[in-house]
């Protein structure tokens, strides 16, 4: 793949992942950086592959191409489809086969390099211990919000805080737009549907206007005894006796409640309303061959032996044309509207290519035109279309005075916009946000006090004081807990994931975790008090150790590969032609 194509591919991927929310310039810069890194790494690895004399046989290459679904028709390789697919990619068979050969060679090399030579048992034992070992800690927690509130800041302090945190108090980027929208509603007035078209649609789609026959049925089920070789004959004989009782005048519902072995027995065997094809074939054929009120002969299905009764029949009906006319007209208008919308979008693109007067274009094409007030990216006052990701991306990535591309925001819904003005972020006046800034100032003071308290405890511990001595006489908002022992991945523990990780980064020789652990707005010191060794009965079964070994092997293999890449970078003389990069 050429560097230009790599840049284009990375740009597409980043745009799709970000939903168009990354500014165009930043997105392009990021795509170029990734593409350049990938291209350099590919070149280094290809050079290594050549040095190692790796090769892919012609047969292996052809087999890979033949097994690519994009080149197949009905599951078989098709040369015509192959060439057509490559044309859509802008490639020839020669260029595609060359790039595929490189890709297969790189896959082969990377597979070899990422296979770790050996996973040491000691490392596996350590990982097992990390997984199964339980630890207990003492936890000093301070909630800055629960501490004694500091004094409100004076004007000088507040001004200084505001200026040092000004990036937090900026207005958002805002744009003023003009845009036009093409959708079904904007073209409906230009659409006509004739009576002949309605009649033709009715005839061509007659099945859609038919209501199939339905039947309300009941049944009695006698299940088959799987242990009995004569099960079907015995069940049929039992069902026949039940049928004779019904024919002699007993109620089908009563016999079903007494004798049916189906869950519908208590409802008198009521299966509700069925259509053809809803039941298994034998049951279906019997049910739809009966007259209303009749009881079937014995019917055998995979579920057992049945007696069926039809309570009611609703025969097939056809909705007349006159009663279907409005429905058909609406369907034809909708179909024509979609076609017209796409044609109108092409007309809009043509007009926008020669003029940036969006109001005049909208008037000529009879489209809705709107000028907005200033909008931010997440503006509650914006209309629904103005909040959609594609619209927002176009609004904030289009230069002032320029038109965006005609963009399909939903199926059959297009827009084009013009940025009339853009206001960059600017500091909000302190007078307007004084209370907000004051609250933030006091929150910072509380957090600073909490940090100083925890630092003091750490200092006391380093001077030889015990944990109990160092954490005595705590102020309001601070408390010590001793949670129950936990595993590192113990989701049921009251200890947060951050504190659990900290506990497993310390040892009994150095029990205090060096860093303050911040979690859910609270500050914590983690002090390891106990390590519970893994008992033999709790050790992992061999199958899990084998899976863990494979995971470790994959991690070590990836590290091995990345180490090699770093070494190749250091030894290679890589030079970037900045002038050429700017042209791409």
Automatic annotation (TrEMBL):
Superkingdom to which the source organism belongs: Bacteria
Q: What is its main location?
A: membrane
Keyword Chaperone on entry: yes
Gene Ontology CC terms:
plasma membrane
Q: How does it sit in the membrane?
A: Single-pass type II membrane protein
A molecular function (GO) held by this record is: peptidyl-prolyl cis-trans isomerase activity
InterPro entries on file? PPIase_dom_sf, PPIase_PpiC, PPIase_PpiC_CS, PpiD_chaperone, Trigger_fact/SurA_dom_sf
Q: Where in the cell is it found?
A: Cell inner membrane
Give the Pfam families listed for this entry: Rotamase_2, Rotamase_3, SurA_N_3
Q: Which residues form the PpiC domain?
A: 212-312
Record key words, sorted: Cell inner membrane, Cell membrane, Chaperone, Isomerase, Membrane, Rotamase, Transmembrane, Transmembrane helix
- The yes or no answer to whether the keyword Transcription regulation is present is no
What PANTHER family does this protein map onto? PEPTIDYL-PROLYL CIS-TRANS ISOMERASE D, PERIPLASMIC CHAPERONE PPID
The UniProt similarity line reads:
Belongs to the PpiD chaperone family.
Name of the protein? Periplasmic chaperone PpiD
